[in-house]
Amino acid sequence: MASETDYVTLISKDGFSYVVQRSSARISPVLKRMLDPTGAFLEAKDNTCILQDMPGIVLEKVCEYFYYNEKNKDARDVPEMDIPTELCLELLMASDYLDI
Amino acid sequence: MLIVPAGRMANGYKKGLNGADVDFEKTWGILEKAFQEIHTKNASALSFEELYRNAYKIVLKKKGEELYNKVAQFEENWLGNNVRTGIVKHLTAPLMLDGTGRTLNTQAERREAGEKFLKSLKGAWEDHQVCMGMLTDVLMYMDRVYCTDHRQPSIFAKSMGLFRDQILRTPVRPDSPTLLEILTRIILDQIQMDRDGEAIDQFLIKSNVYMLEGLYDSDQEVEDEKLYLRSFERVFLQSSAAFYREEGERLLKESDAGTYCRHAKRRIDEENDRCRSTLSEATTPKIQRVVEDELIRHKMKGLIEMETGVSFMVENDKLHELSLVFDLEARVNPQKPELTKAMQKLIVEMGTNINRNAVAASQATAQPAAAEDAADDAPGKSKAGSAKAINQQTVAALKWVEDILGLKDRFDNICKASFAADQTVSTAINRSMADIINAFSRGSEYISLFIDDNMKKGIKNKSEAEIDATLEKAITILRYLSDKDIFETYYKKHLCKRLLLNKSHSIAVEKQMITRMKIELGNSFTLKLEAMFKDMTLSEDLANGYRNHVRKLGDADPKRVDLGINVLTAMTWPLEAFKSASEQEGQESRAQVIYPPSIDRVRLGFERYYSEKHSGRKLTWQTNMGDADIKGTFPKSKGDKPRTHDMNCSTYAMLILLLFNDLPDGQSISLEEIQVRTNIPMNDLKRNLQSLSVAQKTRLLVKEPMSREINAGDRFSFNENFKSEFTRFKIGVVSAGNKVEGDKERKETEKKNNDSRGFAIEAAVVRIMKQRKDLAHAQLLTETITQLSAQFKPDVNMIKKRIESLIEREYLERIEEAPVPSYRYLA
């Protein structure tokens, strides 16, 4: 069984891999359950998650959001995150998928 | 430029995500296969992401409902086919037989089979939970989107419901009970074994209880419809109630109360532990109630009235067991009515016993006393007998007080040691004590006697603390007494004798006692008692003043008689205490005693001195109360030196002896002569002569004829051969101490008491009416009673009579037109 590591790896469908802090990734319930070391699935074993439907450019933005969220968790008057207009729809769908 | 790639990408993304043509059957096939793997614990090869993505896609294609139903279907089949059979396999013969009631198998077998069954059920439940947890994770998107939108229970809840229906609610065989019923029975059976002292696997049961707690009666998951509460707990409580009812009855019959208490306590603790370790915490208060109901509330009466119940415990000072009973009853009812009742009954019983004993003791002696009273003037030998009888009565009185105190101490002790000084019980005890003390008609007199006795001899050689304790004791009883005015009368009488006859051991202690009474009973109660003390001090000053006055006169007459005097205020001193019953009737007591000139001179001198100081006051000499120190010289007999003795005797005895001073040797005087020459009342004269001529140690006179009684015509002469080893001695007079009253005296006291109560009532009535002007009869009665209750418990009839008499004397008038009988105050 995999042990609880500080970092997990997220891989996009086009092969980009992002190593992010586990605590940040946990804001997505889906990722949280998926990578939960007590779970018995493949992803939990490897601490690696291949997101078959997500292009790297979206995943990058998602990871950016993870850290953005982590950083500004308790702060007020947070500056808005810079989101390119062309990525809006994809990001919307990704957030629905990941439930964030 | 910007838009074009975006649109392209979006299209591509959409295509990639939705796949446009998601084949439901195919995708479900993947999921189903995966679920199978999960259920057989083979999940590690599966990709969460893949499953999640598949489920996500299905839901996205609006096929959520189909997926939901499929999953439910899948679970239902799985549970029904695989899991149930696995559990039913463990329903071995011992359990089934047990179910039909024909328990042919031994307990051990039953236990083993039961444990197996429980284990398999527990295993199935835990597996189901783990698997469903994983399924839920994978189907998270479905739960989130489909179930919320369509108000379906989450797939997890749904599957729990399926478990309930498929496993627990399905009969094993068509005509047999469901697994749930069997489970309940098995757990109960195991608990029963536990109660019987067999070891069981508590953890195993606990897991099953967890399962029941995790399941709900319906899919709505209403909090108080847990399967545990709905099906198991109820049955459990019922069976426990039956069990404890039966056990309680058996124990009541078989063992003694102490064991019963211990057992009940143990059972309660056990059930507590059981709830914690085996069942659910939520059941604790309920099962406690059941046990308390069955073992305590319904049995308390029986328990207390058992042969070995409370009275036995009290008799044998089983404090620990009493405290057990107390704990038990306190558990079910903070008022503790049964125990309180039992204690009260016991106190009343024991108290009545004491009262009866005291009455019996006084009755035994009342007979001769009464006979003596009747034949008072017939000088009979009963005099001494009666004195003895009265002594016995005094002893009885002292014994009564001691007994009552003992009783109180005992119950106080019990209350403190066993009942945690509980408020309700101790009030009940106090009330009962008051009841029995007041039930005894001579209580007031006896208490006063008790104090008297202690003042005279009791406190000799005692430390301050001991004296304090004794006083405290007396006050304690006094507190219970309702007829305080009677007590006051007696106390005054006894105090008066103590003071005048110098019987009191310590004036300081006397004063202390008065202070205590003042604190306890209020100022007005002790007013007269304090006045008595004041008189004493004033008299001392007066006597000293007189002595100085005489000395200043220069009349240095060595032969002059020294005078010590007590001037008493007539109102405050109950002087009749000194008069015997017969004297009060005879006129002779009023007649002046004739004094020999040497004494008379002193008397007149003092009267003069006194009237100089306080004009307008009349002194009445109470010679019957005085005493005198005289010095007697006896001729030498047979070569001895002449002897002198200092003697202390009553004034009367002194007068008698002085007569013999003037008498030539060998001469004698008759009784009648003495009477004429001294004018001492015949009764006192006889008494004094008796002590002078009959008593062994103080035989200063020789009586002719020699007999124990003084009869008319007896002659007396000086006893020249008087001998005594003491230079100083006291010539006692028969019956001067404080004794229990004879019947006649008692009647007198009662009558006087009633009179004074009458005045008190009238005063109270007038006070109230003066304030209220108009008042209804009933209200007047209650107010009067409240006002007077500090002094005594007024009799309603007496109040009525007094009101009647007040109307006659035109203090009050009836209001004619009032709807209820009322009175008006007439100024």
Automatic annotation (TrEMBL), chain A:
User: Would I find Cell membrane among this entry's keywords?
Assistant: no
Gene3D superfamilies on file? Potassium Channel Kv1.1, Chain A
The entry's keywords:
Nucleus
Q: Name one GO cellular component term.
A: nucleus
Classification via InterPro entries? ELC1, SKP1-like, SKP1/BTB/POZ_sf, Skp1_comp_POZ
One Gene Ontology BP term is: ubiquitin-dependent protein catabolic process
Q: Which cell locations does it reside in?
A: Nucleus
Boundaries of every SKP1 component POZ domain copy: 7-70
What top-level branch of life does the organism fall under?
A: Eukaryota
* Family named by the database record: Belongs to the SKP1 family.
Entry function: Essential component of the SCF (SKP1-CUL1-F-box protein) E3 ubiquitin ligase complexes, which mediate the ubiquitination and subsequent proteasomal degradation of target proteins. Controls sulfur metabolite repression, probably by mediating the inactivation or degradation of the metR transcription factor.
| Name this polypeptide is given | Elongin-C
Q: Which organism is it from?
A: Oleoguttula mirabilis
The taxonomic lineage of its organism, from the top, reads: Eukaryota, Fungi, Dikarya, Ascomycota, Pezizomycotina
From TrEMBL, chain B:
Q: Which GO terms describe its biological process?
A: ubiquitin-dependent protein catabolic process
Q: Which domain of life is it from?
A: Eukaryota
The protein's UniProt keywords, in alphabetical order, are: Isopeptide bond, Ubl conjugation
Keyword Ubl conjugation on entry: yes
GO terms assigned for molecular function: ubiquitin protein ligase binding
Q: Does the keyword Ubl conjugation apply?
A: yes
Q: Which ranges of the sequence are coiled-coil? A: none
The cross-references to PANTHER family, in alphabetical order and at most eight, read: CULLIN (PTHR11932)
Q: What is this protein called?
A: Cullin family profile domain-containing protein
Provide the species name. Oleoguttula mirabilis
